[in-house]
Amino acid sequence: MANRLAHATSPYLLQHADNPVDWWGWETAAFEEARQRDVPVFLSVGYSACHWCHVMAHESFEDEATAAYMNEHFVSVKVDREERPDVDAVYMEAVQAATGQGGWPMTVFLTPDAEPFYFGTYFPPVPRHGMPSFRQVLEGVRQAWTERQDEVTEVAGKIVRDLAGREIDYGGARPPGEQEQAQALLGLTREYDPQRGGFGGAPKFPPSMVIEFLLRHHARTGSEGALQMAQDTCERMARGGIYDQLGGGFARYSVDRDWTVPHFEKMLYDNALLCRVYAHLWRSTGSGQASRVALETADFMVRELRTAEGGFASALDADSDDGSGRHVEGAYYVWTPEQLRDVLGDDAPLAAQHFGVTEEGTFEHGRSVLRLPQGEGVADAERIASVRERLFRARQDRPAPGRDDKVVAAWNGLAVAALAETGAYFDRPDLVEAAVAAADLLVRLHLDDRGRLVRTSRGGRSGGNAGVLEDYADVAEGFLALASVTGEGVWLDFAGLLLDQVLARFTDPDGGVLYDTAADAERLIRRPQDPTDNATPAGRTAAAGALLSYAAHTGSEPHRIAAERASGVVAALGPRVPRFIGWGLAVAEALLDGPREIAVVGPDLSDEATGTLHRTALLGAAPGAVVAAGVPDGDEFPLLADRPLVGGAPAAYVCRNFTCDAPTTDPERLRTALSG
């Protein structure tokens, strides 16, 4: 019999709808139930593409005896971290403070007042490697609650007070200057892995936001070291198993330092960020590999993540049916030499050599993850292309990984920005059209007439969770990119609506500190305000970037001031932990460069001369530059006011703070103006 989760919109929650556990969603009634029964709350947080979430569900939550014990002694609450990042953030902070590490599934026991007192992540069904079984944890927590409830409550209260004391206020600090940016670059250099690319050891995550900083820093200062780290990291990732050599797109992370074996789940946010990074790398260097990866990743998103409503699904699972009815991690993606022979016949040895498939395997049970160990150059490119196409078609006959098809506002905003720019750079109007369709969906289903966002939708139905700061910031970022690419000022207007909400509802009373939740959002044990990047840009620095771009488009001083104040955290953290504030460092590069404002005036973007100037402006690598294109004195973009044609010909104006250099009608002169 289905439990309460049967009516959820989250695919992750729906995966648990038939568990024998009497699950509740995150709702006031659950805590009232715990209070009336005088039992603790068991909070389990995860997401649909999480491998160990599936494992714990199968081992414990589907077990009748374990579920019966949970139902008798706890009120069990299941949360999709992607729908409720605020709930996830405040309790993950407690888990990390208590245990020194975190992850998913997140396991937390709470008082009926939602105060945490015991923490963990995955627990096995039997004791293993010094870890207690989940049943032992349940019994221990129950015993503590029934025999020492006053002590448990006191501990929970202290934890909440300690968390409240972690308030961060860098809002009044100045934005970073040359010295802080140079210190951040030096810190990255120290953590850089020169043999393998990337930063730190295993597991290795694609450092998309740090690479964006490195590319912008190179564009502004000419630093060859910054460019080299960006280039080498992108090359190693593109050649590794973390990149899908057949279908394009990136897995979540590599379990090893060499980018060989990924954790196979594919997330929308990773692919949106990396698509944009590779497009920007191509813009800076002309790299053929970068253009190939950017386009293949864009095509992957459109082909495999696009929903029927025009948005983009959140993720593809790591696990899939291996053909025997068992769900196995990576089954869809890995190959054995025998499987190559079955598909390719005489071309199998060539494929094995080219993609690094061995008899021993590079993954489990003699299977190999496809990669390019010998690099890009091959003697017979046509033959390799044929091999790749045949393997891709054969793989499509395998059982596909599950798809979490909910649409998350923030991640779709990132996808809109990536697809719009990639489509513009490579003359792929279909990609721009996909970006417009996703933006239309965000306006139609996620944005109300007051400028307030809903976090998620699914199947054309809006979810019930309010948007958080990253939703407002990343959707505004996508709209601003779309405005620059399409020349349609309505996207600038929509971005302004969202950013006005940021200033009104996400700052402290002095307009300084940016919180991750709105002032009128549900009150949790702490109002989250993490300023560091995780898998996506921090809400605070993402907001700083969007506020800065909007100010550059409109000349709005309040938005510029807010961007500078939000960037104060970068001056404080950038030199100390640059790997974890890469987006903030990238925004700081735009602040230091101006950013530049480019107005392109002409009769229409379909006009050849106007279109050439517009594309040249978009391909300029000046950090954070904004582009407005339209007819002279057009009312869609403030930047176009008082910008006439030159001698009756289309022209481009390069400005800072609305003060412009002499206009040019020559694309080469425009290119030069944007490179210095």
Structural features, described:
There is one protein chain. This protein folds into four domains: 4-164, 3-Layer(aba) Sandwich (Glutaredoxin); 183-318 and 403-593, Glycosyltransferase; 333-395, no CATH class; 597-675. It is globular, with a radius of gyration of 26 Å. A hairpin with a 7-residue loop joins strand 5 (253-254) and strand 6 (262-263). The strands form five sheets. A five-stranded antiparallel beta sheet has the order 7-8-11-12-13. Helix 11 runs antiparallel to helix 12 and helix 20 (539-554) packs antiparallel against helix 21. The protein contains 25 helices and 17 strands. The protein has 676 residues and is an alpha+beta fold. Helix content is 48%, strand content 10%. The mean pLDDT is 94.
Topology at a glance:
Layout lengths: L10 H5 L12 H10 L3 E6 L4 H11 L2 H10 L1 E6 L4 H15 L6 E5 L5 E5 L13 H14 L1 H16 L13 H14 L16 H14 L2 H16 L13 E2 L7 E2 L2 E2 H18 L2 H18 L7 E4 L2 E3 L5 E3 L7 H8 L3 H8 L25 H15 L7 E6 H17 L3 H18 L9 E3 L2 E2 L6 H18 L3 H16 L33 H16 L2 H10 L1 H6 L8 H12 L3 E5 L6 H11 L7 E5 L20 E6 L2 E2 L6 H9 L1
Parallel strand pairs: 1-2, 14-15
Antiparallel strand pairs: 1-3, 3-4, 5-6, 7-8, 8-11, 9-10, 11-12, 12-13, 14-16, 16-17
Helix pairs in contact: 9-10, 9-11, 9-23, 11-12, 11-16, 12-16, 13-14, 16-17, 16-18, 17-18, 18-19, 18-20, 19-20, 20-21, 20-23, 24-25
